[in-house]
Specification:
61 residues; alpha+beta; two-stranded antiparallel sheet
Amino acid sequence: MQQTSTLVSTSLKITKNKQPKVTLVDDIEPSDSLIQNILNYSKSLTIKKSNSVGFIEVVAS
């Protein structure tokens, strides 16, 4: 299984005087593999209505 993670909006960079410098991260975009995983999940997801329990979610994988 592929692991996904979320980038934080700031990163700490250590300078020569050992004090952290905060820099902003620009242009954060999801990876192609993450987008493909979401699309594959949505294609394999089926939701059906049931009279006894409400809705049933089925992932065909």
